[in-house]
Every structure is written in C-alpha cells, then in structure tokens.
Automatic annotation (TrEMBL):
It is a multi-pass membrane protein. PANTHER family: MANNOSYLTRANSFERASE YKCB-RELATED (PTHR33908), MEMBRANE PROTEIN (PTHR33908:SF11). The chain crosses the membrane at residues 82-102, 111-129, 160-178, 198-218, 251-271, 283-304, 335-356. It comes from Conexibacter woesei (strain DSM 14684 / CCUG 47730 / CIP 108061 / JCM 11494 / NBRC 100937 / ID131577). InterPro entries: LipidA_mod_glycosyltrf_83, RgtA/B/C-like. Residues 62-214 form the Glycosyltransferase RgtA/B/C/D-like domain. GO terms for molecular function: pentosyltransferase activity. Coiled coil: none annotated. One of its GO terms (cellular component) is plasma membrane. This is Membrane protein-like protein. The keyword Transmembrane applies. Its main location: membrane. It holds the Pfam family PMT_2.
Length: 492
C-alpha cells in the first residue's frame, strides 16, 4: 500500500493555486531589466535556426532544448522582454499542477495542494519564471519525470516506464544537472521495480540520449562559467536559503529563521503523525532531492565546480513535496495548515517586495538605456561591467562594439550599473577608476555626473569631433576590470 489517496482531485482549489501562480508571474514579467544571461539568450535566438545550433557549443553551457523552444516562441510572441520571458512564465505556471501530482502521490490531495501552494509562491521559482533561461524548463521536466517515477511504483506497466524515460530524456536535454536527480531514480528502478526488462529498456533509452549529449558537454566545458567566489561550503549553505527565500529580499535573517522553524514543524509533523506509507514515500522523494544537491557538491570538491542554487534547482520540487506531505498531516488538527499558511505568507511577501523594489531586482540596464536618451550625434560608451554591453544592446539595438580603429565623436559617456558579486549579494556600484584621459590626447572638459542607486554615468564633451579609440578611452571606467567600449549612433 502506498500513501496515495484515491480521493477526487479538488479541482477548484488547485485551479485557484494555478491562477495565483500565473498572477505572480505574468503581470510583472517585464518589470525587471533584462540582464546579461538573458541578453545572451536573446542574441542566440535572433540567429537563423541552424546558426543558433552551431553557436551553442561555443557560447553556452547548457543543452539545446530550451534554445530550440525559445527560438520558436520568440518567432510567435516577439523578442521584447515580455516575449523573451513569457515561455519561462508559462513553464513556471505549469510546474504547479505537476507539483500537485507529486504531492498527491506521496500523501493524497491535501499533500498535493500543499505542495502546489509552496511551488506557486516560491520566490526562487517566481524569479526564474521571469528569466529567459532554461531553469524553469528543467524544473518542469524533472518534476514531470519524478511524477512518472512515482506512478511507476504504483503502476508497473511498461508504458509508464517509457513515459518516465521520455520525460527524463527531455529534462536531460534542458540542463545537464537534471542527471543528479535522475540518477537515484534509475538506481531505485533497477533495484526494486519488478519489470526488469522494461526498466532496462527505459534506462537504456535514457543512456542513449545522455551519450548523444556528451560531445556537446565536453565541448562546452571550456566555456567561461560564472561561479561566485565564495567557498564551496558557503555556496552549499546558500542553497537552502535561496530555495526558501530566493536571491534577495527584505528581512532576510528574520524571514530565514522563521522559515526554518516552519520547515522544522513540517518535518516534525511528518515524522510523528504521518502514516507509515506517507512517511516512506516522502523519505524516498526527499532522498532524490537531497542527492540532487549532494552529488554536485561532491563533484565541486573533486574539481568540477558548478555548485550554486540555480544549477541544483531540479531538487527544489521534490524537497517542497516532502514539506507538503508534512503540512498535510491532519493530526494535530489544523496545525499543518497554519504552518503552511505562514510559510506561504513569507514567500508571498518576498515576491511582492522584489517586484516593487529595485534594490532586490536584476541590474537596471533598462533604466540606464532610458537615461542615455537620444542625440543627434554618435556617442562612445565605456560600459562596466563589460558583459553589460549585451544587456544594454537589448534596449538600444543600434548599439555596437567600437572597433580598434575607433571613430570620430564629440561625446563620451562612461557608464556603469550596480551589480552583485554573487547571487544573494546586494548590488553595488563600482568605484571610479582613473581620473583623466591621457594628457594631450583628448580635449574633454569636466564630466557631467548622474548617479542613482542603480546606475551612474559620466558624460564628457569636447568642442570638435576627435578620433576616439577603445584603449585610451577606457582609461576612465568604473572598477578595475577592462570595460566594453561601444558606439551608440546618432538618433535620427
């Protein structure tokens, strides 16, 4: 016997939770600025389809499925901020009913609704539902794979295993780290499933897909990949915090302590008051989620360091489902519901504040692009951080990198946007580096400075147009790292 209840699905309650999830994702979809990673997606999906596929091994660190879907999606809905991100918002909303199914398989309809509610308001999942990257796709597909895995424990027909293999293969094609939550499922099926031949066929098909992806993975290993400078231990400890509260938000310490206490309450209810079948199924699902974090941490210790919350995000749904099973315990009466309500209220508060307050959002390249305004003459921009040029180009699409030969202009703007040193860190404006241009080379007067909490500009002007080249003009910048030097043509 399993923890799965045969009670009817409470469709109205589930529909209300799905609508809440959509309401948290779609209305503010274009509120935050597009940032570098999303600009990289935008630049790829603007290419002809074949060129995009050819460029993936050199320019990305993920498998191709998301980019194929996004290429098709933007042809239908456009490549503005809403069109670029709306695929992720749809995927993020679809995760909710799949999460319901996982919770239902563990502990019945109440557990399903509790899990769906946790996923609907989760700040990290809302964040990635509004980002044009592959994270919501892998969350959805790995959750679907887990749901089919749980179904295969109750229904041993080969076709269920075939569907599990298909969902798992798609998850692997969306993000390589899906492998870490698939591995324990494979081990369990091989060890315990009665249909040994069907299991071997399903696992064999999944292995073929993995082998087909291996050449791209090996080619992408040399690509730059931004891992924050914090130690492995610190980044591992950041995972539960970011799974609970997202990257940034108000009252992080107080919210984190309160959330931890509520999670402890859910686990206590599960351990003390859940039926044995529910508890056993929850331990299995929680183990799958835990392995999805522990294996990347072990790989990081061994030198393959890609450990951060966004990469291990396939573990979030199974871990939330364990909490959902705990909150759904009916005895003691209503305690689980009260704890669930409190945790959802914390998550909802974080989501609302992040949507309203720039200090918790992505770097404000949109605000900087607006502040640059229009000009009847071309301008040179010295942009820091350097990768921000791609994000700025999303909003100023005529922007192009300045060639080494340079160009003749009268105006130079040294610009920077506040960025964080790592996920979860507050955004900081870099200090100005360099006090002046090389003596006698340019005749710029004192700059006109504009500073906000999100971006800053120094605007230099000289009476006559002069040949400006990237290297000497970058002697003034924000931060010590080399900037990007770009040309913004005259606005007609």
């Amino acid at each position: 016997m399993t923890g799965r209840s045969t009670a009817a699905t409470p469709w109205l309650a589930l529909a209300a939770i799905v609508l809440l999830a959509a309401a948290l994702r779609f209305p503010t979809l274009a509120t935050q600025s597009v940032w570098f990673d999303e600009a990289a997606t935008w630049e790829l999906t603007r290419l002809p389809f074949g060129e995009m596929l050819s460029a993936l091994p050199d320019r990305e660190s993920n498998p191709p499925l998301y980019y194929v879907l996004e290429w098709l999606w933007t042809r239908a809905f456009g490549d503005g901020a809403w069109g670029l991100r709306s695929l992720s918002a749809v995927l993020g909303t679809l995760v909710v009913p799949v999460a319901y199914g996982i919770g239902h398989r563990i502990g019945g309809p109440r557990a399903g609704l509790a899990t769906a509610a946790l996923i609907a308001v989760n700040p990290l999942l809302v964040w990635f539902s509004q980002e044009a990257r592959s994270y919501e796709l892998v969350v959805l597909l790995s959750a679907w794979s887990l749901l089919l895995f749980l179904r295969s424990l109750d229904d041993d027909r080969p076709r269920v295993l075939a569907w599990w293999a298909a969902a798992s293969a798609l998850a692997l094609c969306s993000h390589y780290f899906a492998a870490f939550v698939l591995a324990p499922q494979v081990a369990w099926l091989v060890w315990r499933h009665p249909r040994r031949r069907a299991v071997l066929a399903a696992v064999g098909g999944l292995a073929v897909v993995g082998l087909a992806l291996l050449p791209m993975l090996l080619e992408q290993r040399g690509n730059p990949y931004d891992i924050a400078g914090a130690s492995i231990v610190v980044r591992l400890l950041q995972v539960p915090k970011q799974f609970l509260l997202g990257y940034r938000g108000p009252l992080a310490l107080a919210s984190g302590l309160a959330g931890a206490a509520l999670i402890a309450g859910a686990l206590w209810l599960l351990a003390r008051h859940a039926r044995n079948a529910v508890r056993e199924r929850a331990v299995l699902v929680g183990g799958i989620g835990a392995v999805g974090v522990v294996l990347p941490a072990a790989a990081a210790v061994l030198g393959a360091d890609y450990l951060n919350a966004r990469n291990v995000i396939p573990s979030l749904v199974p871990l939330a489902a364990v909490l959902g099973a705990g909150f759904a315990v009916t005895r003691p009466p209503r305690i689980g519901l009260a704890l669930l309500t409190a945790l959802c209220a914390i998550s909802l508060g974080v989501v609302v504040v992040v949507a309203a307050d720039q200090q918790y959002q992505r770097p404000d390249w949109k605000g900087l692009a607006r502040a640059l305004g229009s000009s009847g003459e071309p301008r040179v921009l010295v942009v820091t951080p350097a990768n921000g040029e791609a994000a700025l180009r999303f909003y100023r699409r005529d922007l192009r990198t300045l060639s080494d030969a340079g160009t003749r202009v009268r105006d130079v703007a040294v610009v920077s946007v506040a960025t964080s040193s790592g996920p979860g860190d507050p955004p900081v404006l870099q200090q100005q580096y360099g006090a002046g241009f090389p003596p006698g080379l340019y005749d710029f007067g004192p700059p006109r400075a504009t500073r906000t909490g999100a971006w800053t500009t120094l605007r230099f002007h000289q009476p006559a147009a002069t040949l400006v080249q990237p290297l000497p003009i970058s002697s003034i910048r924000f931060g010590e790292r080399p900037p990007s030097v770009a040309l913004l043509p005259a606005t007609r």
